[in-house]
């Protein structure tokens, strides 16, 4: 019997015991969710697990219902203090024990993400679906929401390649300490992270983040050889709207004729890559506007 079969047996036993032991806690949380957020108590969303199979993930609701008349439209507006507590302590995940019991998930594995990301993974990143999605995983105990998406997916693939009982036990123990200490909630001390808009890695250009100035985040953009390409910024244009803009670096002095054609070819490839990365950042930041002067 291989570890995959053993792992499934351990998942079933663990889910049954956890549901029995934690049922009083879940009942109290359900009542508090009903008081703070209203019905329904359980949030259900389509997520992706092994073999890119889509299933219905269950969690406790951490947000109030959208209410445009009261200005509750964005996730930030709808997320309550109680909801932040649920997320930062991972108590909102307790209903997912049912998903483990029925075989949608495992206790340990790559986190199940939304179906929106399926078309955005690289071939390497898609390998995270070679195993069942998990309640906790290697990336969750290695930085949680403080990690960039590309780094998270690297850890997911590493888990797929090295999965074992010893590794699962280490991750489980580290999960307990990480949650109790509320480590790595997010870069901005919130219980949420940016969306995934596609890989931000490139062999042609690099985005080097500068220190944030208020709500403005800036990156200097350079080629692999260190030549300045431009500057990218995310900024708020109103209380609710965000914009991403890219401004190219000033054009260098005119190159000699014998290099002009090669520079033009190189610049076209570089700016095409910049455009791809800016589009991915737009999706990641859920920006309302994008300005790209290429």
TrEMBL record:
Segments forming domain Bacterial sugar transferase: 7-180
Taxonomic placement: Bacteria, Bacillati, Actinomycetota, Actinomycetes, Micrococcales
The UniProt record lists the keyword Membrane: yes
Keyword Transmembrane part of the UniProt annotation: yes
Transmembrane segments annotated in the record for this chain: 12-36
Matching InterPro entries: Bact_transf
Name of this protein: Sugar transferase
Record keywords: Membrane, Transferase, Transmembrane, Transmembrane helix
Pfam families in alphabetical order: Bac_transf
GO-annotated molecular function: phosphotransferase activity, for other substituted phosphate groups
Family note: Belongs to the bacterial sugar transferase family.
């Amino acid at each position: 019997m291989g570890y995959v079969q053993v792992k499934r047996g351990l998942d079933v036993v663990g889910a049954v015991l956890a549901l029995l032991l934690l049922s009083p806690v879940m009942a109290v949380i359900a009542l508090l969710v009903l008081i703070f957020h209203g019905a329904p108590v359980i949030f259900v969303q389509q997520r992706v697990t092994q073999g890119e199979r889509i299933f219905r993930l269950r969690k406790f609701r951490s947000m109030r219902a959208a209410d445009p008349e009261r200005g509750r439209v964005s996730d930030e507006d709808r997320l309550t203090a109680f909801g932040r507590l649920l997320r930062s302590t991972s108590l909102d995940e307790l209903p997912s024990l049912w998903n483990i019991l029925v075989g949608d998930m495992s206790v340990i594995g790559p986190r199940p993400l939304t179906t929106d990301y399926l078309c955005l993974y690289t071939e390497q990143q898609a390998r995270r679906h070679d195993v069942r999605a998990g309640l906790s995983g290697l990336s969750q105990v290695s930085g949680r929401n403080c990690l960039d998406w590309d780094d998270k997916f690297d850890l997911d693939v590493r888990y797929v390649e090295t999965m074992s009982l010893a590794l699962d036990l280490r991750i489980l123990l580290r999960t307990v300490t990480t949650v109790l200490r509320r480590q790595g909630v997010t870069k901005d001390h919130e219980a949420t992270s940016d969306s995934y808009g596609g890989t931000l890695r490139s062999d042609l250009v690099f985005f080097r983040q500068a220190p944030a100035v208020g709500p403005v985040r800036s990156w200097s953009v350079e080629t692999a050889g260190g030549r300045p390409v431009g500057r990218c910024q995310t900024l708020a244009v109103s209380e609710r709207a965000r914009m991403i803009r890219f401004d190219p670096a000033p054009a260098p002095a005119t190159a000699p004729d014998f290099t002009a054609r090669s520079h033009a070819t190189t610049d076209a490839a570089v700016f095409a890559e910049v455009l791809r990365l800016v589009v991915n950042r737009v999706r990641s930041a859920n920006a309302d506007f994008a300005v790209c002067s290429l």
